[in-house]
Amino acid sequence: MSAQRKPRPQLIRTKLPMPCQEPADRIQNFDEVPYGYNEAEAVFEAQRCLTCKNQPCVSGCPVEVPIRNFITLVKEKKFLEAAALIKTKNSLPAVTGRVCPQESQCEAKCVMGRRHQPVAIGNLERFVADYARDHGEEVPELPNSTGKTVAIVGAGPAGLTCAGDLALMGHEVTIYEALHAPGGVLIYGIPEFRLPKGIVKYEIDFLKKVGVKIHLNFIVGSNKTVDELLAEFDAVFIGSGAGAPRFLNIPGINLVNVYSANEYLTRVNLLKGYKFPEYKTPVKRGKTVMIIGAGNVAMDSARTAKRLGAEHSIIVYRRSKKECPARQEEIHHADEEDIEFRFLTNPIRIIGDELGKVKAVECLKYELGESDETGRAKPIPIPGSEHLVECEVVVIAVGNDPNPIIPRTTPDLEVSRWGTIVTERSTGKTSKEKVYAGGDIATGAATVIAAMGAGKVAAKDIHKQIMGIKDEETVEP
Amino acid sequence: MFTLIDRKDVTSESVWFKINAPNVARVCKAGQFVIIRANDKGERIPLTIADWDVNEGWVSVIFQKVGASTYELADLQKGGNLQDCVGPLGIPTHVENAGNTIVIGGGLGIAIATPVARAYKQAGNHTEVIVGARKKELLFNIEEIKEFADGLHICTDDGSEGRHGFVTDQLLEMIESGQQIDTVFCVGPPIMMKFVAKVTEPFNLKTIASLNTIMLDGTGMCGACRVTVGGETKFACIDGPDFDAHLVEWEETMSRLSSYKEEEKEAMEYYQKHREGCQCDKKGEQK
Ligand SMILES: Cc1cc2nc3c(=O)[nH]c(=O)nc-3n(C[C@H](O)[C@H](O)[C@H](O)COP(=O)(O)OP(=O)(O)OC[C@H]3O[C@@H](n4cnc5c(N)ncnc54)[C@H](O)[C@@H]3O)c2cc1C
Ligand SMILES: Cc1cc2nc3c(=O)[nH]c(=O)nc-3n(C[C@H](O)[C@H](O)[C@H](O)COP(=O)(O)OP(=O)(O)OC[C@H]3O[C@@H](n4cnc5c(N)ncnc54)[C@H](O)[C@@H]3O)c2cc1C
Ligand code: SF4
Ligand code: SF4
Ligand code: FES
Questions:
Q1: Any bridge partners for residue B18, and if so which?
Q2: Which of B57, B89, B121 is the C-terminal boundary of a domain?
Q3: Does B287 reside within a domain?
Q4: Contact B215, B132 (CB under 8 A)
Q5: Which residue in the set A244, A247, A266 is minimally distant from B216, CB to CB?
């Protein structure tokens, strides 16, 4: 009967690498580093997928993108259908395809990865989304208006996702954003060379097309409080992010040319400081720039410094390479761009000149000791290992705390001792009636896709609440 | 877009803007500020709200032309548009009926001192104002302040108007005369505020300074505005801009303000070149 069985395609063990700008060229510009697959490359990589019945990859994705099925559509060259399928779960695939830490999410679970390299799910997701963008994606038909209104605080990935989902359910959605441009970290933090701003803008234009209103230069807590919004809207979603930079408690931290990564990146990305003086916001260009920390934010800062002309862009990190919290791809790209890593090293003092400008950082060397409760080896300082590193600019990238404006101005909103808004994870509900929250403001600094997931979860529950839909169990069979 | 309802030159160095911004006007209080941006390429410039009208939905600011961004801003004409205007930002000046208050405005600080002094007066304080400028021509708001203040003392560096000397000379004289003073509020160049703090410290006189640090977002996101106050790092945009003047690290504040000296020069040269270029074009058209 099964004489017609298709021959099994030959197993291809390694991922098809993404073509990239050469390191020597790309450090001279702010253009995107990987070019992305072309059609043939995408189909080739898709062929590597084994179409697993139980598709373990999906369980690695925080929003459960139907990975196997979209890859199958790619094999069949049905790219627009693949894009539409992804969008049922993930409204910003062009973004996540570029910035998700795939190696610890979807690709970590891919069967192919057990013995060979996993399927390049992120690269495929990116290809499909880019294809759809270039080939006239259709705006979905909107349901009739429900007459219900929802206010969204913050136009980061959490707020944008929540807004998009609610608009597609027929609600009238208004986003309030403090900055002069929407996108949150996507627009002010993550650099152009990793996430072109045109892509973010396209996604935001899409939201506008489905009727979402965006109010810029509007600070909730100042222009209107959450309570005032509640008087006007049927529900409020807070996606205000973890935007408050942490500094180190060391001498010299407020010297001139010591930046938080947020400030450094905002000057360059949001305000286009790399085009100074045509664009009016300056950013310091140093011959040697030291970045403290080793997450995505640190990699972005170090690679930005290089592009601003630094001869030496040095990452200083207290632990070893293994413990770097940044995405593998970012560390790899940083390596290629001659970013200098000083592991097991930590600054203890920043030294200024007579004008109060940074001229050197005193550092201490560490060695790895026993593992701590997180299972990571604890770094222990080596006595007498103090040494000076000369530099003109220091960028502190040791994390962000939740933005305090909303908690400060909404007294009856329950906040944890870390300043995050307390929510029920399965619904996004806060302690305050009709108020939801999600993304970094609820979890502390996390990922784009986690923030989007939280926006989605909240949109679902908001819809249920404002439409008066009862929980499943009470619905008649 | 935020329409410029009106504008005028207050002095040869400073400009007054009346901006249509109903969302700001509706909720702002004395001591708060806005951040404005002239156009897509512009810098985000923090400016204190000088006056406002809830019903008409406008706020006004007075700013000094010090660098490329403020010069460019000053070029805007009545009826034109500002790309962005966000606010009110910062914690309003804490105004209570403390009895006797002296409000000091130096240079451009006069613009900020005016609404603060008015608020003190309205809260029931005996309010005297000291204003200082390099020369007579740079003074402004004088008639306005006279209308509500219990006393106005003018100081000029060159003696062309009022007292020949600094605001601190006037302040010291008032303190030493035994006059009852409960609170001193000062705003102006940081060097002036530093010396005001020096004058009042030995008398244990409560002194508040309004800091004009470098800022970017104004919402606590970047830390550009950080200052050391009483040994702790504070963000001027969300913890201030008002701080206890005796606890502020003035040297640090001043050095941080000069962070972009070289870039400011470059920006100014670019601005001048670009602006002259524009005028050449116009001449070309007339031919
Ligand atoms: C430099 C950098 C690189 C990163 N790289 C990656 C990466 O490669 N991969 C990844 O998955 N994650 C990365 N992250 C983390 C990721 O960007 C965040 O987890 C994600 O953006 C959080 O989304 P959010 O919507 O919760 O908040 P945000 O993106 O922070 O957006 C919050 C928005 O709310 C606005 N807002 C705040 N308060 C108010 C208010 N009171 N009123 C109105 N608006 C307000 C803010 O201006 C902002 O626009 C990176 C983060 C940074 C900083
Ligand atoms: C909360 C707050 C409120 C403010 N309110 C006002 C206001 O009401 N009116 C007003 O004119 N300005 C005010 N400022 C200062 C104003 O924002 C700056 O003067 C402006 O950003 C300068 O921009 P620029 O590009 O034109 O000048 P730049 O090119 O940045 O600076 C040119 C020169 O001016 C000096 N300078 C810059 N800023 C200051 C400052 N704050 N104080 C003293 N010297 C400075 C620089 O050292 C430099 O030499 C305020 C600042 C803050 C933080
Ligand atoms: S959204 Fe992120 S985790 Fe999910 S499939 Fe796409 S790249 Fe993987
Ligand atoms: S686990 Fe890997 S091989 Fe299997 S369906 Fe998912 S992507 Fe394809
Ligand atoms: S201006 Fe950015 S934190 Fe104050």
A1: B6, B60
A2: B89
A3: no
A4: no
A5: A266
Ligand 4 binding pocket mutation candidate from A16, A48, A52 (most atoms within 8 A of CB): A52
- Whether residues B128 and B34 fall in one domain: no
Total Cβ atoms within 10 A of residue B144? 16
Q: Contacts of residue A188 in chain B, CB cutoff 8 Å?
A: 221
Residue at B7 is within a domain: yes
The predicted structure's pLDDT at residue A471: 67
Residues B184 and B73 in one domain: no
| Residue B95 forms part of a structural domain | no
* Chain-chain contact of B216 with A271 (C-beta, under 8 angstroms): yes
Q: Which residue has the tokens 């990922």?
A: A447
For ligand 5, whether the C-beta of B218 sits within 6 Å is: yes
Percent of chain A with pLDDT over 90: 73
Query: What stretches in chain B show pLDDT beneath 50?
Result: 280-287
User: Position of tokens 């009110």?
Assistant: B88
Asked whether residue B32 is assigned to any structural domain, the reply reads yes
Give chain A positions within 8 Å (CB) of B43.
271, 280-281
Structure tokens belonging to residue B13: 């160095």
Q: What percent of chain A has pLDDT over 70?
A: 97
Pair B81, B110 in one domain: no
Is there a single domain that holds both residue B219 and residue B105? yes
* CA dist., res. A302 & res. A296, Å (int): 10
Could A281 and B43 be called an inter-chain contact, meaning their C-beta atoms sit closer than 8 Å? yes
pLDDT at position A379 is 86
Closest CA to B137 of B7, B8, B10: B10
For chain B, say whether A87 makes contact (Cβ under 8 Å). Answer: no
The length of chain A is 477
- B239 and B114 co-located in one domain: yes
Domain limits for position B234: 100-256
Predicted TM-score of the model (pTM): 0.91
State the Cα–Cα distance between residues B231 and B284, nearest whole angstrom: 59
β-pair partners for A152: A175, A237
- Give me ligand 5 centre to Cα A263, in Å: 8
Q: Are residues B176 and B50 in the same domain?
A: no
User: For residue B10, which ligand has an atom nearest its CA?
Assistant: 2
Strand partners, A52: none
Token pair, residue B128, equals: 């005297």
